[in-house]
Amino acid sequence: MLDDLRSRIDEVDQALLELLDQRLALVREVGEVKREHGLPIYAPDREASMLAKRRAEAEQRGLSPDLIEDILRRCMRESYQQEVGAGSKCLRPDLGKVVVVGGKGRLGSRFVQYFEASGYQVAALDKDDWQDADALLAGAGLVVLSVPIDQTLAVIEALPPLAEQCTLVDLTSTKSAPLAAMLAKHPGPVLGLHPMFGPDVSSFAKEVVVHCQGRGDNDWLIAQMGLWGVKAVAVDPAEHDKAMGFIQALRHFTSFTFGMHLKEEGADLEQLLAMSSPIYRLELAMVGRLFAQSPELYADIILSNKGHLDLIKRFQARLGQVIALLEEGDRASFVAKFGDVAQYFGPLAKSFLRESQLLLAQSKDNRRS
């Protein structure tokens, strides 16, 4: 009896595989149509409408709408990856060559991939090619700098003169200094970009790119990234650098310090993982993932702005304030402070709770030990 039921489940699974194969084939066709008509990979209104309909249909069938949404979101994530291969419409066919300085690096190569898929002529200029920089940059209509933070200003200064109509762009995670250096170096269009993601993302769809206007008409480039599914956020360079203190420097500092503390305390990571609920396992994973990446990158991010250290020192002072409350056993003050911060977060607190519950469900699904 059990074997028969399992065999029937296997048959249903095979049917699901066939349907998924058909769905992805249709997605590839959709990608071609979007490319031809200049439509973005990610259409939020279409996605929201489709999910709402499928959830309603699931409820009518007595199925969990959350289950259906989980399945469809995973399918859509795969769909976005499929559409990357189809590329997007080239908005500036008259642009000339796109040169990505650092285009053989991990992030630079992703931008090479996207520009090539969109029909642009692309060249990569890496550190070993610098003797050929003049030739590689000749006729460039767009130059994108994807180099380490600590080398960005030197690379800008070392650039040969570019054609006046050429657009000069950087991808650095600090914006004020690189933007000022590019404006001083190049008389043509200048734009500062900060992709808020790493090179390991499967697709640019739904990813954020912060942009800081320098000079000239750069709307076409923002629109091109929009076709890739990017969410572009405009901000003043000084405001960008201030925000990155919270988004990047302080978070990386606390993860680094927590990881160092675990190491110095001799904590048994396997034991911690075995006893952790999904939320604590996920928090530990967010700390641990830092140490699977480049230490130079995180050192440069934290040290790229003196304001970051000032922010970290203020954080240290507030840690001291909380420790003082605990040393005094002042439970009432702790609860009151907690309430103040909860009021500051307002409705976002419950929104974050719901969002984290989805992440925890996925984390639990993937747990093997």
What's the architecture of the largest domain, going by CATH? 3-Layer(aba) Sandwich
**Strand/helix succession:** HHHEHEHEHEHEEHEHHHHHHH
**Distance linking N and C termini:** 31 Å
Backbone CA Rg: 24 Å
For CATH, the homologous superfamily of the largest domain is named as NAD(P)-binding Rossmann-like Domain
- The total count of strands amounts to 7
Residue share in β-strands: 5-15%
CATH level-3 fold name of the largest domain: Rossmann fold
Oligomer: single chain
Number of helices: 15
List the helices and strands and how they pair.
Layout: H1 2-37, H2 44-60, H3 65-86, E1 97-101, H4 106-117, E2 122-125, H5 133-137, E3 140-145, H6 152-158, E4 167-170, H7 176-185, E5 190-195, E6 208-215, H8 219-227, E7 231-234, H9 237-265, H10 269-275, H11 278-288, H12 295-303, H13 306-327, H14 331-345, H15 347-365
Parallel strand pairs: 1-2, 1-3, 3-4, 4-5, 6-7
Antiparallel strand pairs: 5-6
Helix pairs in contact: 1-3, 2-3, 6-7, 9-12, 9-13, 11-15
What do you see in this structure?
This protein is α/β, with parallel strands linked by helices and 369 residues long. It folds into 3 domains: 86 residues, Chorismate Mutase Domain, subunit A (Up-down Bundle), CATH 1.20.59; 138 residues, NAD(P)-binding Rossmann-like Domain (Rossmann fold, 3-Layer(aba) Sandwich), CATH 3.40.50; 90 residues, 6-phosphogluconate dehydrogenase C-terminal fold, CATH 1.10.3660.10. The protein is globular. One of its GO terms (biological process) is chorismate metabolic process. This is T-protein.
